[in-house]
Design a protein that fits this description.
Elements (H helix, E strand, L loop, with lengths): L5 E5 L3 H18 L4 H4 L8 E7 L2 E9 L2 E7 L8 H15 L4 E7 L3 H6 L3 E9 L2 E9 L1
Parallel strand pairs: 4-5
Antiparallel strand pairs: 1-2, 2-3, 3-4, 5-7, 6-7
Length: 141
């Protein structure tokens, strides 16, 4: 299996921010049919946006709003190759650097195990968000 370069970082340039938005649009709006007004809720300007590149191509995205991780997405061709792990590691580095003691997230149920492998603990009952089953999870930093 060839080695691939995965780089996850804070989206700072206009291109990086647009790559972040494109990944979210493809995964959540097109693939999962989430209404664009739910996906782009007007909070991005209050968030730290993250983007991941796989061999230089946009592959993943996420955002951090205060201590809540959200909008974690990986484009279909790059799934199960470490993109989400790289994004989450980048977020955790940021959280430690900025003294954020607890990260929380609402995981879509079908990817709960991905977050458990990264040390997130499910809390509470399953709930619907944008019509999709989710579970609240958290991780002490």
């Amino acid at each position: 299996m060839p080695n691939h370069e995965i780089v996850a970082k804070i989206a700072e340039t206009q291109k990086e921010i647009m790559d972040h938005v494109m990944v979210r649009g493809k995964v959540f709006i097109i693939e999962q049919a989430i209404d664009w007004a739910i996906e782009f809720d007007g909070l991005d300007h209050e968030c730290v946006l993250f983007v991941a590149y796989f061999d230089g191509k946009p592959a993943g995205s996420a955002r951090l709003h205060k201590n809540k991780v959200g909008r974690v997405a990986t484009l279909e061709p790059y799934r199960k190759q470490g993109v989400a792990r790289a994004i989450m590691e980048s977020i955790e580095i940021y959280a430690r650097k900025h003294h954020i003691p607890l990260l929380t997230l609402h995981a879509q149920l079908y990817v709960k195990e991905v977050y458990e492998r990264l040390g997130y603990v499910p809390k509470g009952d399953i709930f619907k968000e944008a019509g999709i089953d989710h579970v609240y999870m958290e991780k002490q930093m």
